[in-house]
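fyi for ur records
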Amino acid sequence: MNLLTRIFTWWNGATLNTMIYTKRYGEEVGRDEFGNIYYRKPGIDPALGFERRWVIYAGVSEGSMTPPGWYGWLHHTTDVPPTQEDYKPRSWQLPHLPNMTGTPEAWRPSGSILAANARPPATGDYEAWTPEA
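which gave:
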């Protein structure tokens, strides 16, 4: 990746400062199926009062690319990372779908001016308000 991109953008993986901090203090905990790498700084951070944990995304930094097990570990819901336990997603936890907002594949409800089909006709149950003089 281009050095200038690393210095001036945060959405294309880790910034240069994050990479230096990770190299200096980070301890790799594991990786997920998307190639994201999870780190922790051993010990209690005096500013936070708990252990510091973070992720370096493979590619564009998007929070929805964090699987449920790793999400729980990052947010201190669990103390044990998924690599150290036999984590199985629950039946209601769906696999990752990327955020399609702003793309041609974005969800467009019926009635949207961007939807492929025509807008449904007015139903006649609307009565316009007019001020009384």
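The chain has a mean pLDDT of 83. thats all i got for now
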